[in-house]
Amino acid sequence: MKEKNTENKHQFLFGKKNYTIMLIGLVFIIVGFVLMAGGGSDNPEIFNEEIYNFRRIRLAPTLVLIGLGIEIYAIMAKSKK
User: Which residues of 5-19 are buried (b: 16+ CB within 10 A; e: fewer)?
Assistant: First the structure.
């Protein structure tokens, strides 16, 4: 019987390029959620119109969706293995 080399090499699931793209997507998602935060009022009796500004209604959700799209691309992109 021939002895097989059973050396276990730890390989990552994705390549370096994929992880870099995933990190960029994660940054987009985090920035989007940070931009959504805040806008509340200390007093529940007073309504704060700032909650409906462009940053919270349009910009932040768009950044989150772009980040999710980048994450999907990073998963689907072919690595150089």
Answer: eeeeeeeeebeeebe
Predicted confidence at residue 51, as pLDDT, reads: 84
pTM given for the model: 0.78
* 7-25 tens-digit pLDDT: 667 787 888 899 999 999 9
Inter-residue contact 11 to 36 (CB < 8 Å): no
The CA-atom distances, in angstroms, between 69 and each of 51, 56, 64 are: 26, 19, 9
Cα 49–Cα 52–Cα 53 angle in degrees, nearest 5: 100
- pLDDT tens per residue, range 38-54: 777 778 888 878 888 99
Domain boundaries, the chain: 16-38+47-76
Between helices 60-76 and 16-36, what is the axis angle to 10°?
170
